[in-house]
Amino acid sequence: MICVTVARNRHKMMTAEHRVLAERGAELVEFRIDWLQRAPDLNRLLKDRPTPAIITCRRQGDGGKWTGSEEDRLKLLRAAIVGGADWVDLELDVAPQIRRYGQTKRIVSHHDFTGTPDNLEELHAQLCQQDADVVKLVTTAKSPRDCVRVLKLIPNAPKPTVAFCMGEYGLASRVLCGRYGAPFTYAAFSKDHTAAPGQIAFDEMSSLYRYDRITRHTQLFGVLGDPIAHSLSPLLHNAAMQHVGFDGVYLPFRVPAAEFSETLDDFAGLDVRGYSVTIPHKEAALKKFPQCDEIVKQIGAANTLYRDADGHWHSDNTDCAAALESIHTVFAEGESLAGKCVLMLGAGGAARAIGYGVMKQGADLVIASRTADRARVLAEQLGCRSVTWSDRDMESPQVLINATPLGMHPNVDDTPYKADWLENNMVVFDTVYNPEETKLLREARAKGCRVVSGIEMFVRQAAAQFQRFTGQSAPMDVLRETVRGSLSRGTS
Ligand code: NAP
Fold first, then answer.
1. Does domain 321-452 sit in CATH 3.30.9.10?
2. For residues 327 and 357, is the Cβ–Cβ distance under 8 A?
3. pLDDT tens digits for 295-304?
4. Ligand 1 centroid distance, CA of 350 (Å)
5. C-alpha pair distances (Å), 292 with each of 280, 362, 399, 410, 459
6. Residue range 100-123, pLDDT digits in tens
7. Which active-site residues does the annotation give?
8. Which of 235, 299, 366, 436 shows the greatest Cβ crowding within 10 Å of its Cβ?
9. Terminal C-alpha separation, the chain
10. Does 276 sit in the ligand 1 pocket, CB within 6 Å?
11. Which CATH architecture has domain 2-216?
12. What is the DSSP string of 345-364?
């Protein structure tokens, strides 16, 4: 069950949000009465309530907004019990001062906004000793590894326990606590109305992560990166799993580079089945799990980690094949890259993965990059030529690949290759996928070139991961629609 926190400064807004939430399927709300500007009117909040409600009045020291006296706060909490609230939230130190009465259930809670303390287990034991129907222990994750420690409290707890971490590192624990037996998790009314750091909006919790369907059998996947908040991968993979009816959930894991290896060791306790890997962990991922195909070794970077049937971890790089397949979508039957002159702009991670594939297909590859040395080194490794950035117009490529971020949102007026240099017989592949139609692709299309958008590559690399993760073919149309929908809403 998802409990949605309603934290507004007016009663009218709180009751209005409560009605909207009930219509959207929420089953429990938490009224944060410490947010109210005027004296809380409990009767107004509880009368004709469309779902059960928790009354919470948080002190400032516990992350709340209550400015009145402690005596008045306790009076309000007692009044909530007498007034028939379904639940009250009582902090660990005040719980013994407030007696159980009537049908009102008690959440005994502790919040730590500074970190995840060393004496976590001790704190949990203290909470469990209280007269509580549910114990709530919420800390701040300073590292993704804190989530594992906090989630471990739940399964064998003597009292039903809601435990998760706040902050970006803690996001996964908010979704996963139910998998370990937490009676509910907390969500916000919307992204704009969060009451705690890292709180996930109700819609996201219910529709994207499908919290209420997560059980201990639900298989866990995720994307490792830093930063990670803007990754589209959770949208894609969760939509695809939902579409094919696969019992899985896919989460964003923000992991700092310095903690990559230790985090994966700790996450073994969460029984994660597979990861997508993004900047800055692609090289570290391959080092951690070196079992892979020869081409992945040559590329020297993995964007996918998955476990085989025996539980052994493997690395893969789905970018390479995804790029080649994307180019082939505009080739005529029987047409190939073999012998074709390919000019690739950029010499970073994406260029490296694509370059190996292009060379393997027998193309005549030339690399141009802003930093000449980077292009030269990559060309040497691939066994091809490089030219300086200023000489990139001197080639007459049959296939042009942009593997730089030039043209990417918000710099949509940039292009890595002038319109005058384009010829109508070229194939132009832009790895940039936001926007779908970059300036380069627009100008190439106008010239009569065959064009391929970065969305093709993005969707194909995700589809190959999905296949590795679930053993099932990805629904390509669902992936494409999900990316396009997200880009048009501006969520990336
Ligand atoms: P990267 O490792 O940072 O490499 C970026 C490359 O672009 C470097 O060669 C860099 O040159 C060059 N570059 C950056 N800014 C430039 C500028 N203003 N002018 C000229 N050259 C510039 O990044 P990456 O991981 O390879 O990613 C590159 C792009 O590929 C991304 O922006 C993304 O749009 C795209 N991509 C797409 C997919 C997909 O699935 N569609 C997947 C991965 C990547 P310097 O060495 O001089 O910095």
1. no
2. no
3. 999 999 999 9
4. 7
5. 19, 23, 29, 36, 22
6. 999 999 999 999 999 999 999 999
7. 111, 136, 282, 319
8. 299
9. 29
10. no
11. Alpha-Beta Barrel (3.20)
12. E--SHHHHHHHHHHHHTT-E
